Amino acid sequence: MYNSKITGLGKYLPDNVVTNDDLSKLMDTNDAWVQERTGIQERRWIKEGTEDTSAVMGAKAARIAIERSGLTKDDIDFIVFATLSPDYYFPGCGVQIQDMLDMPTIGALDVRNQCSGFVYAISVADQFIKTGMYKNILVIGAEYHSNGLDKTTRGRSVSVIFGDGAGACVLSREEDNNKGILSTHLHSEGKYADKLIVESPSIGHWVPEIKAAGDDDLTYFPYMDGQFVFKHAVVRFSEVIMEGLAKNGLQKEDINMLIPHQANLRIAQFIQKKFGLQDDQVFNNIQKYGNTTAASVIIALTEAWEEGKIKPGDNVVLAAFGSGFTWASAIIKW
């Protein structure tokens, strides 16, 4: 059995910065209202007329990750792409990456686990490497939220939260079982699927109904029962982090860096306080980028590494919770 380790990291954010004050021109909201509830100050939204999509942003982040890994595109054996906002209903973005990067005809897999998407994706890639099937795997998380949001007062409770962006990493074989990804832990509870959902389009709401839908049909916009999601998130975050620590004989005090999914700064602060972690032990960037769903953990991990906040030998914990409900963690010895 091999371990897998992260050998390259990359991120990409659209240039267009949208502040809370900018949103106040579109809907009845203000900077204080948004910051108090979410901690978000600004986010990146793809500007109309630019080339960016989930796949395009993912490819841009991937090129950086591959270059930093010291490998070439031809060294990559497999692609795992996580998103809830693919360019097409089908096919998924993974095959687009294979084409955009002019890679050999390697396999490409798409993961649809929303906010937990990247941690699920890295777990899948880790298993492929652990079994010896592949040596180098490209893992991407990317989201293009802004084109599917209700940017009116009616949708403000959801629309102020989400941003666009992408992150990527290269996972490579590591023969030292004390380094790299030590374990991953995945969970779901589908009975709460309707608490955070986009109901349409779907096979049950297909083309004739889409064409006939009026302006009052809200099934095409994200719906979230915010308080319900928050209450479950803080419980499941704690559980899945503790599960990972226990699996590896670690304590809360052994965490050098926690990278939580950037869903809401208040959730991250609650977990930080519960675990007794200092500010330099938790990395948050939701203030700048909003919730980028499957991209949030990898963007934050990349940024923390770029800023020198993660060092060799550190115990790094990734944790996420979101729609599904799904939740997951990964314990990494850097």
Automatic annotation (TrEMBL):
Residues 245-334 form the Beta-ketoacyl-[acyl-carrier-protein] synthase III C-terminal domain. Belongs to the thiolase-like superfamily. FabH family. This is Beta-ketoacyl-[acyl-carrier-protein] synthase III. It catalyses: malonyl-[ACP] + acetyl-CoA + H(+) = 3-oxobutanoyl-[ACP] + CO2 + CoA. It is found in: Cytoplasm. It comes from the Bacteria. Pathway: Lipid metabolism; fatty acid biosynthesis. Catalyzes the condensation reaction of fatty acid synthesis by the addition to an acyl acceptor of two carbons from malonyl-ACP. Catalyzes the first condensation reaction which initiates fatty acid synthesis and may therefore play a role in governing the total rate of fatty acid production. Possesses both acetoacetyl-ACP synthase and acetyl transacylase activities. Its substrate specificity determines the biosynthesis of branched-chain and/or straight-chain of fatty acids. The last Arg residue of the ACP-binding site is essential for the weak association between ACP/AcpP and FabH. Residues 109-190 form the Beta-ketoacyl-[acyl-carrier-protein] synthase III N-terminal domain. InterPro entries: ACP_syn_III_C, ACP_syn_III_N, FabH, Thiolase-like. Homodimer. Its main location: cytoplasm.
